Amino acid sequence: MVLKFVFELDSNNGVIEKILIRVADILNIKLGLSRDLKILYAFVDGSEDEIENFSRELSKQLPLSIFLKSLNAEVIEEFKDDLKREFPEINLPPCPKCLNEVKDVKNENYYNPFHHCEVCGYDVNEQWKMENGKLFFELLADKLKKEGKIYIQTMNGKYEVSTNLEDAEQIVAVDLAAVATYFMSFEGDAKALGSIEKPLVNLKTNLNFKKEYELSTPAYLVKLPDCMVLELLCEEIKSDIKLLGLKSSDLSVDFEFEINNNDEIIKAVVTDTRNHDILVDKGDRSLLPKFEKYLGKDVCGINAQYAALSSEDKTVIDFKKKLSDNTEKKEVSKPFAGYFGVMNQYSLEEKVTMGFAFYKEDESKIMINSPKFGLVEYIEFDFKYNSVKDVFAEISAMDETGPKLIANYSKKNPELFNKIINLDLITEKKGIAYLWGLIGIILGFSDDIDNGYKKVLEFANSAMAKKGPRIDYKMKDKNLNPLWAIRTAMSFKLAGVDGYLLSYGIVESFAEFLTNTYEQVTKESPLDGAVIVGDLFEGEFLNKVYTNIRKNYPVFVPKALPLSGAVEAYGEAVIISKS
Ligand SMILES: [Zn+2]
Questions:
Q1: With CB atoms counted within 10 Å of each terminal CB, which end of the chain scores lower, N or C?
Q2: How many CB atoms lie within 10 A of CB 241?
């Protein structure tokens, strides 16, 4: 009998594949692997008993993954095995088997922080030299409890680990119960946090947190232990301490070892879609190197610290320094590279799609690609001002209410008004990031564009809101006219709307503008889906855009990659391979 397992899996980094191979080896059962764009198939051939044993063992060993959307099984006739069993070497938090072993007193790896296997672990050559790992972690935990902080090397860098959470960069919760006690977390958040990728997730603190820790911080980046060092430390403290604050440090006096891992921990955005699709907006740990389709002999694309190199039978996407060094940057604009990278990953080149490619410090564009007309640029986001004074002058010239608005604004906040009109607007920010930074200045969040942009995002991400005020985003020919957004934001401030809610509205309304743009076009000439790419898409903004469009239409984001970075390197290689 042949049983076929169907894994709806966005990633091809080998995590699920290697677990399947391991279980088949343990039970000595015949395993076949195959895959298409969306699905990994596993075929097991054996007696009914053997297949039942396989399923039981698999359920013990199989980790949750943010890339695993569903799992089904069916009995079929045909066995298939055509997947090349070659997988990239990635850094990955501990797998279920290794976690069991380090906590099993009879196992030779009991309390060995360097224990790992062919599936999980980090690029570390150290051997655990100490006789008694349990005692070592007990002493470390005692010091943390007594002194309130320790300085340790983890698999992901050196940290000051503290029981004081006040200005923690990230929080480690000892388990999911601790997350539920102190944060507002929902179904999808637990799935993301508990996955083997162990991403950081932005979570809002609850009343319990505010009371117990006497802190008013509205939100933190939270993760569960994502390496054996933190895992074993948390095992020792979890009956007394539930949350630890982590801050990057140069010191590691309490536990030191050598490790070769500079990967950035991934940050997950759990969307409000029905299935709570989980997207990665930043980071590369467990995502690189990544194997993609062969694009031709020695075709190479580069973006920032990433490169994509096609040779032999596949394209490898990785850090530039790890690939060939005869690579040089070609002149491909970022929005095109991003759009083509995602299109190629999902084989969308022969479909009609709308591409939303938005960058903080590069061009942003809305584009439409179709087999009939090729690539058409639809909307641009290009504007710059010399001073807030100029912005106000243009708003005054728009219509009759313009001058009244400016007069009211100066009357209501004369101090703010006089300060901002002459502020320096020099920045690398462009497009929407520039506009939001400018609005941040005008609302009094900051004195410069960069910080103003940061504040608007921070407020929007931690606002306790379901719906914000409606900010106008309107077009002028083929360009967005930024003045409408600025003046509506000013009116709401005059009406007394607070900074958090107003920022939420600024972000939410732009997500709605993008959704409306898609809907208007698809009504007239049907589209096959939206592509979202670029570093402007993060946090609540990414959630809103994705969730809104996904309600009725397919949405494609960089597959098993963050929203920006590596995907543009791949896209550049795609474009070069076609030229
Ligand atoms: Zn393992």
A1: C
A2: 16
Q: Which two tokens stand for residue 163?
A: 């029981």
pLDDT number for residue 331: 78
CA 308 – ligand 1 centroid, Å: 28
Beta-strand runs (E) in 60-215: 68-76, 149-154, 157-162, 170-173, 183-184, 200-205
13 CA distance to ligand 1 centroid (A)? Answer: 15
C-alpha 19 to ligand 1 mean position (Å)? 9
CATH number, domain with residue 483? 1.10.357
Please report whether residue 44 resides in a domain. Answer: yes
Gap from CA of 287 to ligand 1 centroid (Å): 17
Kindly give the parts of the chain with pLDDT less than 50.
none
Alpha carbon of 358 to ligand 1 centroid (Å): 38
Q: Using one digit for the tens of pLDDT, what is the confidence trace for 514-532?
A: 999 999 999 999 999 999 9
Q: Are residues 21 and 170 in the same domain?
A: no
Is residue 376 located within the same domain as residue 399?
A: no
Cβ neighbours of residue 168 closer than 8 Å, sequence gap 6 or more: 162, 220, 245, 246, 247
Domain match, 69 and 103 both: no
CA contacts within 13 A on the Cβ side of 442: 30
Q: Using the mean position of ligand 1's atoms as its centre, give its distance from the Cα of residue 234 in Å.
A: 18
d(CA 143, CA 469): 49
Distances (CA, A) of 38 to 10, 17, 74, 331, 346: 6, 14, 17, 32, 9
**Ligand 1 centroid distance, CA of 260 (Å):** 18
Cβ 535 vs Cβ 526: under 8 Å: no
- Does 407 reside within a domain? yes
Amino acid identity at 395: I
Per residue in 359-377, pLDDT (tens digit) is: 999 999 999 999 999 999 9
Q: Ligand 1 center to residue 299 CA distance, Å? A: 35
Same domain flag for 464 and 558: no
Query: Are 228 and 143 contained in the same domain?
Result: yes
pLDDT for 325 equals 60
pLDDT of residue 327: 60
Rounded distance, CA 282 to CA 264, Å?
Answer: 8
DSSP collapsed to 3 states, 337-371: HHHHHHHHHCCCCCCCEEEEECCCCCCCEEEEEEC
Kindly state whether residues 318 and 393 are assigned to the same domain: no
Distance from Cα 140 to the centre of ligand 1, integer Å? 24
Give the span between the Cα atoms of 371 and 365, in whole angstroms.
19
Q: Does 162 reside within a domain?
A: yes
Q: How far away, in angstroms, is 96 Cα from ligand 1 center?
A: 7
Number of domains in the chain: 4
Q: Whole-angstrom Cα distance, residue 574 to residue 301?
A: 8
79 CA to middle of ligand 1, Å?
A: 28
Dist. CA 312 → ligand 1 center (Å): 30
> SS3 letters for 130-154?
CCCHHHHHHHHHHHHHHHCEEEEEE
Q: What range does the domain containing 68 cover? A: 2-76
